[in-house]
Amino acid sequence: MKSQLEQLKEMTTVVADTGDFETIRKFQPQDATTNPSLLLKAAKMPIYRQLVDETLDIVRNKNLSSFEQIKVCMDTLAVRFGQKILDIIPGRVSTEIDARLSFDMRGSVAKAHELINQYEQVGVGADRVLIKMASTWEGIRAAEKLERDGINCNLTLLFSFSQAAAAADAGAFLISPFVGRILDWYKLSTGNTYVVPSEDPGVQSVTQIYNYFKQKKYHTVVMGASFRNIDQITELAGCDSLTISPTLLDELGNTFSQLEKKLDANNTAEVRCFTLGGEADFRYRLNEDAMATEKLAEGIRCFVDDQIKLETWLRSL
Question: 3-state DSSP call for residue 273?
Answer without folding.
Answer: coil
